[in-house]
Every structure is written in structure tokens, then in C-alpha cells.
């Protein structure tokens, strides 16, 4: 080696190399623990809200409607290819269809979307009514409990504890 290259090399003792290795091991442990704790401390990202089985189904896109009509034909035409490859074939078919056929599926998708919006509006109304009924029931329970605790007789419209106390005097 030449003298200039010797000056640029850093030499470590075996103890220093061990210390550097331990330092990197601690760093990797810190990063692994940080990744684990972020997944564990944020469970709402992992958990999904349960879907309401009564909610209307979302509308299908024009492409999905096309695929549902032509999937079987593509499978019969290419019996040896996988499902993924069938999807690729359908994608190529969708790109190559004429605008008249594509417009037919886009109109079907629009109608499907309108149907979905109407069903969703009706669903939200019924859900709001159920929530209002639940709130009213809860509110009635609260009012009855509050009246009992405060001594108000809901049936007679008076404070029965005060009436009882005054009649006892």
C-alpha cells in the first residue's frame, strides 16, 4: 500500500469491534421493539368496525359488471390459465371493447349507483329512527330515575316525599 492509503484506513482493536457490534445489536433491538409497540399501541388501525348486515351493498363498477358477464366465456376460451390470468385477459378485453358496449355497462353502473343511493338514504332514515327511539327510551329511563331520586311522583305530578312529610306533621 502507498502511504496515502495507509493514512485513510481506520484500524480498530478487537475490543472496539466488539463494542461496535454490540451497539448495532442494541440499535436493531430498539427498532424492532419500536415497530412492535407501534402495532400494539395502535390497535384501532388493526381492528375494523363491524359491518351492519342490513346496510345496502355498494354498487358495482362498469368494469366489474363486464367481468361478471364475460368471466365464464374467458375461462372456457382459456381453460388452462389461472384466475389471475383470467383477470388479465378480462382487463385486455375491457380495454378493447367498442364504446357502444362500454356505454351499456357504464349505464348499468349508473343505475346501480342510483339504486344504492336510494337504498342508502332509506337505510340511514331507518337507522336514525332506531337511534332516536333508543335515545328516547334511554331518556325516559333517565327521567324516571331522576324523578324518583328527586322525589317527584310522575303519576300524581307532585313531590310525594314533601306531601308525605307535610301530612305527617
UniProtKB/TrEMBL annotation:
<dbReference type="Pfam" id="PF00505">
    <property type="entry name" value="HMG_box"/>
</dbReference>
<dbReference type="InterPro" id="IPR009071">
    <property type="entry name" value="HMG_box_dom"/>
</dbReference>
<keyword id="KW-0238">DNA-binding</keyword>
<feature type="compositionally biased region" description="Basic and acidic residues">
    <location>
        <begin position="37"/>
        <end position="55"/>
    </location>
</feature>
<dbReference type="GO" id="GO:0005634">
    <property type="term" value="C:nucleus"/>
</dbReference>
<keyword id="KW-0539">Nucleus</keyword>
<feature type="domain" description="HMG box">
    <location>
        <begin position="56"/>
        <end position="124"/>
    </location>
</feature>
<feature type="region of interest" description="Disordered">
    <location>
        <begin position="36"/>
        <end position="57"/>
    </location>
</feature>
<dbReference type="InterPro" id="IPR050342">
    <property type="entry name" value="HMGB"/>
</dbReference>
<protein>
    <recommendedName>
        <fullName>HMG box domain-containing protein</fullName>
    </recommendedName>
</protein>
<dbReference type="InterPro" id="IPR036910">
    <property type="entry name" value="HMG_box_dom_sf"/>
</dbReference>
<dbReference type="GO" id="GO:0003677">
    <property type="term" value="F:DNA binding"/>
</dbReference>
<feature type="DNA-binding region" description="HMG box">
    <location>
        <begin position="56"/>
        <end position="124"/>
    </location>
</feature>
Amino acid at each position: 500500500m502507498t502511504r496515502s492509503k495507509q493514512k485513510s484506513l481506520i484500524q480498530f482493536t478487537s475490543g472496539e469491534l466488539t463494542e461496535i457490534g454490540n451497539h448495532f445489536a442494541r440499535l436493531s433491538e430498539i427498532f424492532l421493539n419500536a415497530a412492535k409497540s407501534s402495532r400494539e399501541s395502535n390497535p384501532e388501525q388493526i381492528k375494523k368496525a363491524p359491518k351492519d348486515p342490513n346496510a345496502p351493498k355498494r354498487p358495482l363498477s362498469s368494469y366489474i359488471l363486464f367481468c361478471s358477464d364475460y368471466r365464464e366465456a374467458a375461462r372456457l376460451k382459456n381453460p388452462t390459465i389461472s384466475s389471475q390470468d383470467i383477470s388479465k385477459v378480462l382487463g385486455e378485453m375491457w380495454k378493447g371493447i367498442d364504446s357502444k358496449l362500454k356505454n351499456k355497462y357504464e349505464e348499468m353502473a349508473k343505475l346501480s349507483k342510483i339504486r344504492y343511493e336510494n337504498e342508502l338514504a332509506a337505510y340511514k332514515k331507518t337507522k336514525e329512527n332506531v337511534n332516536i327511539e333508543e335515545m328516547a327510551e334511554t331518556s325516559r329511563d333517565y327521567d324516571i330515575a331522576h324523578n324518583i331520586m328527586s322525589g317527584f311522583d310522575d303519576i300524581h305530578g307532585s313531590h310525594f316525599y314533601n306531601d308525605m312529610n307535610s301530612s305527617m306533621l
